[in-house]
Every structure is written in structure tokens, then in C-alpha cells.
């Protein structure tokens, strides 16, 4: 059975294979998602961000680090669409290149924190007893810590830079995923299909990853998407304080920080990267909201 | 979750509070240990003889086993001794006592604004579910979640300070008022009132209003959204219908019948956003040159002042943990089901 490109195959009410059923489910979800204009808007911006990050050298009209002091602090105009900064660098090019560190930090944090939290939460929920008590106690404690300040202290100790920013944010970002995953696994732990799997003698690992994981995944994906907005803001905050990506790399938070000196007269130097951060985090918020409606209708 | 009642519950929360503080201390201690800065060299300088180095190392207790160092760290912190800041040359505890009130003033005014506007707006949105006002508030909330606070602060300064001149600029007071009132509580509004200096009070307020409104907006986004969710859930219940059938006005239904039922979770939300504001002040203070704990931590960061950074982190963490525990206890006391 192969995937067919006919519409009625995707929407068939009587799927002939598991693959077809799964494809149909995703297709329907996609259709539902595309009905919400907010979600489409968010997806479009994220797509734009990814494209900007990948094709930055071709999209940017100028080298983001090319300095030209004679062209410094120019307002937006024909030669430089979004103006130039204090070193005469083209702001549009810097904003386009700035998508790279932002997306990198966001995806690395998500890849580090979400699986860790998910695994901890699943184990806590599935095993119960003292394992759950200990794991959730630790989660609660980390949940009660100030995220930004802790990340700040960590970066201060590890030294500024993108990798350390990622580590610092990830260390403070995993507890919510553990909570969500634990709640999900607790509710399905006693259900028949888990019992059946256990009676069949399936090893615990396969029950966890084959049966429990798919149940926990949707709510985790929603959380990750909603969290990405917060991660973008945290990363930008670290950059603004000079603790994220180091110059001359163009990073939006750091760009605002340099634009700060010129805010009263050359407002665009700080305004342009700020709008970029706003749009990026707005996009993830919109998509997260939309995903919640699609994947998790009971909490809509 | 199963609820315990009475003194047993309070004891449980007490134990969890102690546990949290212990882990918090452990985390800051470990971060300090991991710092690539040699505290001995900071004391003796890098040209000291090996003997002087060993002597200083011994005096700082760094030749002891790690667990002993940690025990000493905990004991010192319990006495309020957080070490000496290398950048200000004063004990960190003293510095924090001076800087923290500025943050507290800012965050408290911010949360007051957030609650004052957020709760009624959330109620309104729930009542007008899916109507235009609900959609508008959703948009306002979404923007609040998405906009970087330091950037909005800059834009606010540009518009309301530089262009319109409605508010005071960065800092807590204009320079001419700077040393006219003695700092008794380190809260500008309190100090100027105490000095009976109305002009300085107005000036302090004009400096405070923009950053406080900014923080208020961020807590409003969260508080109004959660209020709306809590009210939506309650409004579909039968007691609401009963109250309406009996002819209670909509305002009475919302305030007298529903509000008490959502008070406990709402309080948790408010306490959480208060804690977040205390922490979020780090970025706001940088923009507004507000001499609070956030500015203190960031300044310490750049002079590699580890004990100041960790002291500040510890204080913010303490506020977090205390607020968390307090709301849990309050929630328990407010819930009639937990009373016996």
C-alpha cells in the first residue's frame, strides 16, 4: 500500500491500512488548522523565518558585517530599506542573518529540554510510588526557581555565548514538560491497552516508548510550541544583556542593546530588531494556540 | 491531589519550604563552585607567593572538603552573610538591602496595576465570550506574551519621555531631587512622603509610572487570560444558572457567586505573576537605569563578581519559593473542603 495523491484516498472513511488511516488523520488535522487565519499567519511567519535563516546569504542585500562609516545611522530608504546602524551596517541584512542564532537557540533548547522532561514525567507517571514522589519533588523545586535569573547566573559562570545560553535556558526549561507528561501518563497508566501490553510481557521500555509516548506527545508538542515564544524572549534578553551571541554576529537582542544608545534620535536601529523578535514570538504563540485547538480539543 | 487539613498540612508545607531552600542553596553553591574565577586570586592578587596563596586559601576555607564548604555556605547564608562583593567592596547582604526595595516598589506597583485591570478585564472577556471585546483582549494578551519587555521599555521611553514628555526618564528621581530626601526605607514614594516633600514625591511617581505600567501590562496579559479561563469554566455550571433564574444581576453573579469560587486559583496566578515580575525586573531595570536588584545582578555579572551574582540569585529565588509556598498555604486555608 502506498500513499496516493487522490483526495478521496486521504479523506476515506474506510481506510484500508494503518498508513492510510494515519495519513487521513493528519490530513484532516491540517485542514482544520488551515481554517484558522491566526494559525496560517503564524505558520507563514515561521516559514519565512526558516527560509531567512537557511537562505540568508542569498536573501540579504548586503554583507551583515560590512561596515561603512560614511553610511552610518541612515534612516530607512531606497539604498538601505531598513536603514543602517552605528557602523553603517545594513539593518535588513542583519535582521535576516539574526534569524539564524534565534532559530538555533530555540530548536536546540527544545531538543534538549523537551525529551528530558518528557522522559522524566513519563517514568514518574508510569512507575508511581517513590520514583514518582522523588522525581516530581525535584520538578516542583525546579519549577519554583526563577528561570531568567538562574539562566543569567549560569551564563555568568559558564561565560557568554550561544552554546552556554542554550544550556542555561534548557536547564531551566524542562520542568513543565515533566509535569505535562506525568499527568498524561498517570491517566492512561491503568487503561486496558497498557494492561494488555503488560500482560503480553512487553518489556517496560517498549511500553513506555511504544504505547505511552504517542499519548504524551501531542500535549508536549503544544507546550513546546508555546514555550518557544518564551525561549525566543529569554534568548533575546540574554543577548540584550550581552550574554548571548557575541559580536560581530548579528543577534536581535544584542542589536536592540546597541540601538539603545541611539533610541531618541535614530529609533530604527532598536525598533527594527524589536519588531523581528515580536513577530517571531507572536508566530510561535499563534501556532501553539492553534495546535492546542487542533490536537487537544478537550482543553480548547 | 489529595488535600490534607489542619496543622499537618502546614507542617508538610514547612518541610517542603525548607527542602526547596536547601536545593536553592545547593544550586547557587554549585554554580559558584563551577565559576572559572579563583576566589583566592581575587583576594591575594596574581603575584602572591605560594605561601600567601595557601594561607589565603586556608582562611577562606577552600582547603576543606566540599560538603564542609557547603555547610559553611548554608550557615553563613542563614545569618545573612553572603560574602563580600568585589565590585562595591561591601557585604553583599548590605548591598541587597539597599537595592532590593527599588525592585520591590516597582514590582508591587506593577502587580497592583495588573490585578486592578487584569481581573475585571478577564471577567468581562468571559462574560462577553467570543464577542469583539473578548477578541480584542485576546489580542492584547497575545501581544503581551510576545513582545520583549526591554524593547517595549525603550519604545515607551522614546514616546512618552522623549517625544511627549509625559513621564520622567530613566532613574528613580531627577538629579536635583537626588539627595534631598534621606533614604529611610529605600522606597522612593515612602521616603519622599515621609520627608513631606510633595514635589519630590510627584517626581518619583513620574519616574515610576512608565516602568510600573510596563510590568503591569505584562502581568495583565497573564492575569486576564487566566481569569477569563477560570470564569468561563464556572459560568457554565448550574449554580450560575440558578442565581440568574433567581434574578441576580450579571454583576452580582460574577462578583458574589463566581468570584469566591475562583479566588484560590486566581490567587495562585497573581502570586506567580508577582514572582515573575520581581524576576522580570532584571531586564526592565536595565532599560530604565532603575537601581534595583536586577541592575545590581547585571552589573555584577560584568565585573565577574560571583558572590554578588549568587547573592542576588538567592534573594530572587527566595522570593519565588516563599511566594509559591505562601499561595499553596493560602489556597489550602481558603478552600472550605480542606477545613475540618
Topology:
The complex is a heterodimer of chains A (300) and B (340).
Chain A: H1 7-10, H2 18-34, H3 37-54, H4 56-59, H5 91-127, H6 129-143, H7 147-158, H8 162-173, H9 175-189, H10 192-199, H11 204-240, H12 252-259, H13 268-295
Helix pairs in contact in A: 3-5, 3-13, 5-6, 5-8, 5-9, 5-11, 5-13, 6-9, 7-8, 9-11, 10-11, 11-12, 11-13, 12-13
Chain B: H1 7-34, H2 39-44, H3 50-59, H4 66-78, H5 92-127, H6 132-146, H7 149-163, H8 188-194, H9 198-235, H10 238-245, H11 250-288, H12 293-302, H13 306-334
Describe this structure in words.
The complex is a heterodimer of chains A (300) and B (340). With 300 residues, chain A is mainly alpha-helical. Chain A has 13 helices and no strands. In chain A, α5 runs antiparallel to α11 and α11 packs parallel to α12. With 340 residues, chain B is mostly helical. Chain B folds into 2 domains: 280 residues, MetI-like (MetI-like fold), CATH 1.10.3720.10; 41 residues, no CATH class. Chain B is built from 13 helices and no strands. In chain B, α5 runs antiparallel to α11 and α6 crosses α9. The model of chain B has no long low-confidence stretch (mean pLDDT 83). At the A-B interface, α6, α7, α11, α12 and α13 of A face α1, α6, α7, α11 and α12 of B.
Amino acid at each position: 500500500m502506498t500513499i496516493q495523491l487522490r483526495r478521496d484516498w486521504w479523506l476515506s472513511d474506510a481506510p484500508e491500512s494503518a498508513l492510510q488511516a494515519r495519513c487521513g488523520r493528519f490530513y484532516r488535522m491540517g485542514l482544520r488548522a488551515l481554517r484558522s487565519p491566526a494559525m496560517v499567519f503564524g505558520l507563514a511567519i515561521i516559514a519565512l523565518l526558516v527560509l531567512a535563516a537557511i537562505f540568508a546569504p542569498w536573501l540579504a542585500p548586503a554583507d551583515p558585517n560590512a561596515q561603512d562609516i560614511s553610511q552610518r545611522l541612515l534612516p530607512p530608504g531606497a539604498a538601505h530599506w531598513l536603514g543602517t546602524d552605528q557602523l553603517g551596517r545594513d539593518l535588513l541584512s542583519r535582521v535576516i542573518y539574526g534569524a539564524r542564532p534565534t532559530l538555533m537557540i530555540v530548536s536546540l533548547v527544545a531538543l534538549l529540554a523537551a525529551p528530558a522532561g518528557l522522559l522524566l514525567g513519563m517514568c514518574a507517571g508510569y512507575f508511581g510510588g517513590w520514583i514518582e514522589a522523588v522525581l516530581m519533588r525535584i520538578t516542583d523545586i525546579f519549577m519554583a526557581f526563577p528561570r531568567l535569573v538562574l539562566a543569567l547566573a549560569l551564563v555568568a559562570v559558564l561565560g557568554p555565548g550561544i552554546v552556554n545560553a542554550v544550556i542555561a535556558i534548557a536547564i531551566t526549561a524542562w520542568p513543565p514538560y515533566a509535569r505535562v507528561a506525568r499527568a498524561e501518563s498517570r491517566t492512561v497508566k491503568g487503561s486496558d491497552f497498557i494492561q494488555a501490553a503488560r500482560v503480553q510481557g512487553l518489556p517496560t521500555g517498549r511500553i513506555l516508548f511504544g504505547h505511552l509516548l504517542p499519548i504524551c506527545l501531542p500535549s508536549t508538542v503544544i507546550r513546546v510550541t508555546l514555550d518557544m515564544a518564551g525561549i525566543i524572549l529569554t534568548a533575546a534578553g540574554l543577548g540584550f544583556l550581552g550574554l548571548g551571541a557575541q559580536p560581530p554576529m548579528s543577534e536581535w537582542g544584542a542589536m536592540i542593546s546597541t540601538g539603545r544608545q541611539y533610541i531618541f534620535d535614530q529609533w530604527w536601529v532598536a525598533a527594527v530588531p524589536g519588531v523581528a523578535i515580536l513577530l517571531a514570538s507572536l508566530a510561535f504563540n499563534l501556532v501553539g494556540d492553534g495546535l492546542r485547538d487542533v490536537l487537544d480539543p478537550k482543553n480548547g | 491531589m489529595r488535600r490534607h487539613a489542619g496543622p499537618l498540612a502546614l507542617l508538610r508545607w514547612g518541610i517542603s519550604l525548607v527542602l526547596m531552600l536547601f536545593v536553592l542553596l545547593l544550586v547557587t553553591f554549585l554554580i559558584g563552585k563551577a565559576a572559572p574565577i579563583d576566589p583566592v586570586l581575587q583576594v591575594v592578587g596574581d603575584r602572591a607567593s605560594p605561601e600567601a596563596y595557601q594561607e589565603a586559601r586556608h582562611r577562606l576555607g577552600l582547603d576543606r572538603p566540599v560538603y564542609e564548604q557547603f555547610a559553611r555556605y548554608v550557615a553563613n547564608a542563614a545569618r545573612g552573610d553572603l560574602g563580600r562583593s568585589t565590585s562595591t567592596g561591601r557585604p553583599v547582604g548590605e548591598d541587597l538591602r539597599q537595592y532590593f526595595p527599588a525592585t520591590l516598589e516597582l514590582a508591587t506597583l506593577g502587580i497592583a496595576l495588573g490585578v486592578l485591570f487584569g481581573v475585571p478585564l478577564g471577567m468581562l472577556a468571559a462574560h462577553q465570550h467570543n464577542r469583539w471585546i473578548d477578541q480584542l483582549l485576546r489580542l492584547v494578551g497575545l501581544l503581551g506574551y510576545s513582545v520583549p519587555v526591554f524593547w517595549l521599555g525603550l519604545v515607551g521611553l522614546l514616546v512618552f519621555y522623549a517625544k511627549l514628555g509625559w513621564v520622567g526618564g530613566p532613574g528613580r528621581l531627577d538629579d536635583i531631587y537626588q539627595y534631598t530626601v534621606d533614604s529611610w526605607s529605600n522606597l522612593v514614594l515612602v521616603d519622599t512622603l515621609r520627608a513631606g516633600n510633595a514635589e519630590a514625591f510627584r517626581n518619583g511617581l513620574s519616574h515610576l509610572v512608565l516602568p510600573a505600567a510596563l510590568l503591569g501590562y505584562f502581568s495583565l496579559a497573564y492575569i486576564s487570560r487566566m481569569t477569563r479561563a477560570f470564569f468561563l469554566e464556572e459560568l457554565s455550571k448550574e449554580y450560575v444558572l440558578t442565581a440568574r433564574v433567581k434574578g441576580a444581576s450579571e454583576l452580582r453573579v460574577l462578583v458574589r457567586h463566581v468570584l469566591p469560587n475562583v479566588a484560590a486559583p486566581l490567587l495562585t496566578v497573581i502570586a506567580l505573576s508577582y514572582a515573575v515580575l520581581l524576576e522580570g525586573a532584571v531586564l526592565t531595570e536595565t532599560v530604565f537605569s532603575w537601581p534595583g536588584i536586577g541592575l545590581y545582578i547585571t552589573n555584577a555579572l560584568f565585573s565577574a563578581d560571583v558572590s554578588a551574582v549568587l547573592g542576588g540569585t538567592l534573594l530572587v529565588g527566595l522570593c519565588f519559593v516563599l511566594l509559591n509556598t505562601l499561595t499553596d498555604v493560602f489556597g489550602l486555608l481558603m478552600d472550605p473542603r480542606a477545613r475540618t
